[in-house]
Amino acid sequence: MKSVCVFCGSNSGERPAYIQSAVKLGAAIAGRGLNLVYGGAHVGLMGALADSALASGGRVTGVMPKALVDKEVAHQGLSEFHQVASMHERKALMADLSDGFAALPGGAGTLEELFEVWTWGQLGHHDKPIGFLNVEGYFDRLLAFLDHQAGERFMRQAHRDMLIVETEAERLLERFASYQPPRVEKWISKAER
User: Fold this and answer.
1) Of the residues 71, 140, 162, 174, which has the maximum number of CB atoms within 10 A of its CB?
2) How far apart are CA 88 and CA 100, in angstroms?
3) What does pTM read for this prediction?
């Protein structure tokens, strides 16, 4: 593994633990000699994550659509920055540049980005690890709903289990390093019901 993509909030959230977790994850990624790939902003958890990785001697690659660059939220001190035309291009490039995907707390965009790469993994488009850094139980209700989806047979349990969930940055990265993707068909046949 050479690069980890992190999806997270462009806001800081209510609790200090959210910023602290972004700082720890940025430092942990840099400490392992990995490149951080993220959305390229200097604000919110995104900015804290990038600043921490850079301060720890890491390499940080940002990817941002021109419309957001024009709003002046782009980080000016990154190792590498890619301006793209659209959000679709942003997600595709971030996926191409990354060997794994993690989510810190965030809003709809964070979930949409993570769910897209998770879906690609279920379909066999990649074999990269995907996980949540579950800070102070932020994702607990979402994870319970995903368990419900698997229980109702809208996804295989093996695909639900693809999502690595940890509360500590170092442990999440350890599990990424040893990740083995499931080798099962996405669709549940009538005979299996």
Assistant:
1) 162
2) 18
3) 0.94
